[in-house]
Amino acid sequence: MKPQLRLDAQLCFALYAASRAMTQAYQPLLAPLGLTYPQYLAMLVLWECDGISVKAMGERLQLDSGTLTPLLKRLEAAGLLQRRRSSEDERSVLLHLTAAGAALEELAASIPATLLCRHGGSDDGDQRAQLRDTLQLLTRRLQRPPGS
């Protein structure tokens, strides 16, 4: 077997496995809030920017509308957000937190630290920031058209 084709040699597999493990680690923390991991990510965006457009939400989460729309409908059905047409541009749909959605932020505030403690991570913010920055750079590079 060619060494470059071994599964353990693949960066893509290491990222895939880490992503799955991260999502699974969040599940027990999000269950009491009634959120899935993708819903949690959407709520993070809304807590940052209440009134964001669906289009901008999709860009922030790097999700297409076919994936994002059902997720937002479930959050709306749960009473956490409202979707409203923009008064300036009827083609644009804006997302607004409900009182319940805003209140959920307080309950979610301890999740990042709890996750870190439960899984034996150090509280080295510099190391986490460096890893995050490296992954964001990798994402930007992979999203560039080939040869650019």
Topology at a glance:
Elements: H1 11-30, H2 37-48, H3 54-61, H4 65-77, E1 81-85, E2 93-97, H5 99-108, H6 111-118, H7 125-143
Antiparallel strand pairs: 1-2
What does this molecule look like?
The longest helix has 20 residues. The protein is mainly alpha-helical and 148 residues long. Strands 1-2 form a two-stranded antiparallel ribbon. The two termini are 32 Å apart. It contains 7 helices and 2 strands, in the order ααααββααα. The model has no long low-confidence stretch (mean pLDDT 92).
Summary?
With 148 residues, the chain is mainly α. It contains seven helices and two strands.
Q: Key terms for this structure?
A:
mainly alpha, 7 helices, 61% helix
- Which architecture of the domain at 26-107 would the CATH scheme give at its second level? Orthogonal Bundle
* Shape descriptor: globular
**Radius of gyration over all CA atoms, rounded:** 18 Å
Strand arrangement, major sheet: 1-2
Instruction: Give the helix/strand class.
Output: mainly alpha
According to CATH, the homologous superfamily of the domain at 26-107 is: Winged helix-like DNA-binding domain superfamily/Winged helix DNA-binding domain
Give the low-confidence spans. Answer: none
CATH fold-level assignment of the domain at 26-107: Arc Repressor Mutant, subunit A
**CATH domain class name of the domain at 26-107:** Mainly Alpha
Number of helices: 7
Mean pLDDT: 92
Helix content: 55-70%
Largest sheet: 2 strands, antiparallel
